[in-house]
Amino acid sequence: MNALRRCYYFFIYTNLLIASAAMAQCALTYVFFDASFDYPIIAIEGAATLVLYNFSLVLSKPKDPDKSVYKRTRWIFKNEWILWLNTVMGIGVLAYAIFLIHWYSLVFLGFIGLVSVAYSFPLFHYRGKRVGLRQLPAVKIFHIALVWTLSSVCLPAFELYLDGHLLDIHRLLSLFVLKFIFLIICTLPFDIRDIQQDSYYHLKTIPSMLGAQKAIKLCYGLLCLHSISVLLTSFPWDLKVGVLTTNVLIALLLRNFVFRNKDRYHYAYLLDFALVVQFLTVLTSVTLHSIAQ
After folding, report:
1. Residue 257 has what DSSP assignment?
2. CA-to-CA distance for 293 and 283, rounded, in angstroms?
3. What is the DSSP string of 233-256?
4. What is the arithmetic mean of pLDDT over 21-36?
5. What's the pTM?
6. Are 275 and 186 in contact (CB under 8 A)?
7. What is the C-alpha to C-alpha distance for residues 151 and 239, in angstroms, rounded to an integer?
8. Widest CA span of the chain, in angstroms?
9. pLDDT digit string (tens) for 193-218?
10. How would DSSP label each residue in 104-160?
11. DSSP state of 263
12. Alpha-carbon gap, residue 69 to 191, rounded angstroms
């Protein structure tokens, strides 16, 4: 049990969990379009996520990380060589994989990168000063969901189109909306957890504006909305069963762990793991349905 716990924390601290989640969500798009996995695109998704999250840690490094109140911060900079090692490996994967995709996909990837940079780069005027999207009221969570949806749905779909696949636009739009809502559900608990920290930095997130309890109710409400929306789509039932099964697991996770133990800082990271579980659950459902036929 201790070995499993150490492994779990290692994947959190090294950002390998969030990179795996990005790859899983990207791969899920190919399952929804009944297409073969495009491994260079999936590799780019994981490597780019890993590198971006690692650089964000480097840029936010405190003056004395050993005295940080967060165990994660203390561990990361005590083992900083691991941070730089997987960053270099991520850059290497990116440098190799970008030569295996279409030029237009690379341009689109650059556009996603610019949208991502807008999160912290001071491009907008707010209350007499220039700020990034992060400082605009309630924008943070929608920006994160948009960047992830663009990279995990639109990028692989665009590459499929360039490869000559005929894409169902209605299916693409449905997947875009469902993914956007799902990512808000998986991101909202982090903002609920970080209410005090965000208030310290004068960030107005949805939970800090609504209050923790209303934000928790909103999270459950979005989960119900997502489930109903899944049922109303024209996706095959094997896909629907996989997604709805994941939603049930997430509801149990939120109720029994994330929202019940608000002081357990790392319970929220189980939502990152849920992004991987969704892919595995849908893939299992589709595989079993294929075998049954």
Report:
1. I
2. 16
3. S-S-HHHHHHHHHHHHHHHHHIII
4. 97
5. 0.93
6. yes
7. 21
8. 63
9. 888 776 656 678 899 899 989 999 99
10. HHHHHHHHHHHHHHTTTS--EEETTEEE-GGGSTTTHHHHHHHHHHIIIIIHHHHHH
11. T
12. 18
Q: Look at residue 261 and give its three-state secondary structure.
A: coil
Measured distance CA(98)–CA(289) in Å, rounded: 35
| pLDDT tens, residue by residue, 109-122 | 999 988 887 776 67
10 Å Cβ neighbour count for 84? 11
* Closest residue by Cα to residue 171 from 236, 114, 228, 126: 236
Alpha helices in the chain (DSSP H): 2-13, 16-32, 39-59, 71-78, 80-97, 103-117, 140-149, 155-162, 169-193, 195-200, 206-210, 212-232, 237-253, 270-292
Q: Residues 100-152: pLDDT tens digits?
A: 999 999 999 999 988 887 776 676 777 777 766 777 778 889 999 999 999 99
